[in-house]
Design goal:
The structure is a homodimer. By secondary structure, the first copy, chain A, is an alpha/beta fold. Chain A has helices spanning about 15-20, 35-50, 65-75, 90-100, 120-130, 150-160, 205-215, 230-235, 240-260, 260-280, 310-315, 345-360, and strands at about 5-10, 55-60, 80-85, 105-110, 130-135, 140, 145, 160-165, 185-190, 200-205, 295-300, 320, 335.
Chain lengths: ~350, ~350
């Protein structure tokens, strides 16, 4: 399906027309124009506010995975120790990425339907003494939101480790304080809460992280090298995308105008309605406890009478598209993405009503 | 300057409204929709025609440098030998990239204002017996177009090397036959002749290149891993950008409708007018011989009476923006980009008339 009548996929989400209007203009060269570097700087400032951080912001041209790879490759050398705190697919993925470059990675693993437990994580950090600790704020496949980033950040800092956090699908839609949680590298994508094209990968980078990055001196497309002080240097390692950067600006301005607290409430309201309606029609939440659930995405078990393919087909016949799942969660669970442009109770109600209708006629 | 009255920068070029209309739509998720994979496949076919190749086509989300890094990192291991045929900044850049991953790189170097000489390149290949030979079709900073890709390709094949060619700023605007030149990995960006946003990096990959890529098994954002058989597998390592892919389709369709020979003629006409008018007003071409000049970009020396900053400022006062230069060419030379949407004699004449006016009043 090229266009969705009711789209509730957990990213890439529907892109509002007001953000797509960035492409109405024909821009000059982002390589050389002061106006582009001013826009880059303005976006840095707006992102800092949304993330509650004074850390530097790097905005790269590529999908969110670009930021994840950059964080790993720019900080780890072969033999270095990394601890991946994991209660899901993306948490584990960090360990695979680290091992692919020859780092020594351990996983502090929790079940996919649960959250990391701070004391166990702390003990693992104290024992393993890693150079890098990674965590995932919202595990999009599981539909869970980690609630102990600050504890992990404190423990990481105690052993001198950098704390790397993937908040690709939560930032802007769920409370997050990068500085309070001592997050040295924070990772964000543009096609989730920010509701634009998947073309930008955003990283917040602390001064201590920059020190490590400069020491490691990794070169590649997925490198932060050359991205420090972009607005001051007016130089970037490759041509940036002015249009995406303008769309990001429209999105950040919109979020700022709405207010972060309002956005969090809008996401929580949409998520609660989703869970309440789901439970009411007999759907079973994948997370073990409702308190583990993310305000940006809800993961339910697929109703027993359906295969994923049959269920998806039925919903699509009624104009609704939701998300399937990946890895060990594929085939058993499905996801409602209520983030950014899709975090509205009216839209979620419309979608959940279709699910109810399909279930009643099955 | 945010918008150019007359833009003749050698990429990113002006994006026609007809391509930007791709962003008028709100698409579904590129991760899961058959229509996206069909579009990806259609673009692969159109690119194959434009490049004259049966080789596989990979379309990544990122700037053209992503393709350059991918070609190097996916084929070379530390200690492997690479020969960079170079008559310019990008040619040399390949060697730096290879050395950054611990490969043994040699440069077969020619002056920036000249072209590689096939016999010397052949001798170097025969003696060094590299695993990879790289070359650059159009050296955008120099404004030159290499004319011996077939000879280099033959020599590379003779020693069993892969032949990697950067045709980022030439393909579609200058004759190029990937299969005849035995190009194993060919590299293309979207913001040059194709005249869309800089968000796509395109690679043509031969079966022998895929063999090496699979053996090297490099992991990273800048990896081809997971990008073989995308339309068949309906799976990609990250979320793609449906909008950019649609814009690419509109551009490729437009180029196909125009016809390649027509496009080459349009580029050559614009380039010839640029050179003729330039010489007529006393500008000196940077390439040693006019026969070295690229049909997509012309590099002149900056008139003696001006610094680059003064000259650029004067031209901008008249509404014209051209390109400066990089590395050792910075400050001495400037560039007229007549590629894709800017390869029209009327536009080039308008721009060159402004340069003439500025020179007359200096």
């Amino acid at each position: 399906m090229e266009h969705y009548k009711i789209g509730l996929v957990p990213g890439p989400v529907s892109i509002p027309k007001e953000f797509r209007q960035a492409w109405n203009n024909d821009y000059g060269s982002s390589d050389i124009e002061d106006e582009f570097f001013a826009l880059y700087h303005e976006n840095q400032k707006l992102i800092q506010k949304i993330l509650h951080t004074d850390n530097d912001i790097v905005i790269n041209l590529g999908e969110g995975m670009l930021a994840l790879w950059a964080a790993i490759k720019c900080t780890l050398l072969p033999g270095d120790k990394m601890l991946a705190v994991s209660s899901g697919l993306f948490g584990e993925g960090f360990a695979d990425m680290a091992m692919s470059i020859g780092a020594e990675a351990e996983v502090c693993a929790f079940p996919y339907d649960s959250l990391p437990e701070p004391q166990k994580v702390r003990d693992h950090i104290m024992k393993f003494k890693p150079k890098i600790v990674t965590a995932v704020h919202c595990e999009t496949p599981s539909g869970t939101l980690t609630n102990c980033l600050a504890e992990i950040g404190n423990a990481a800092r105690e052993v001198g480790a950098l704390f790397v956090v993937d908040f690709v699908s939560s930032a802007g839609g769920a409370p997050l304080d990068v500085d309070e949680c001592k997050i040295d590298i924070g990772l964000l994508g543009s096609q989730k809460v920010l509701s634009i094209t998947p073309s930008l990968a955003i990283s917040s980078i602390s001064p201590r992280a920059w020190e490590v990055i400069e020491r490691v001196n990794y070169a590649g497309y997925d490198s932060y090298k050359g991205w420090r002080n972009v607005p001051e240097n007016k130089y970037m390692p490759y041509t940036h995308d002015w249009h995406s950067m303008k769309a990001l600006n429209l999105s950040l301005e919109s979020l700022t105008r709405e207010g972060l607290d309002e956005s969090f409430k809008r996401h929580e309201d949409a998520a609660k309605l989703c869970r309440d309606m789901g439970k009411d029609m007999g759907l079973k939440l994948f997370p073990k406890s409702e308190s583990f659930c993310s305000p940006t995405v809800t993961t339910f078990y697929i109703p027993e009478q359906y295969s994923w393919h049959e269920f998806d087909t039925k919903l699509r016949e009624h104009g609704l598209v939701v998300g399937g799942n990946y890895g060990s969660l594929a085939g058993h669970t499905f996801r409602i993405g209520h983030m950014g442009s899709q975090a509205y109770v009216e839209l979620v109600r419309e979608g959940m009503n279709i699910i109810r209708e399909v279930l009643q006629h099955s």
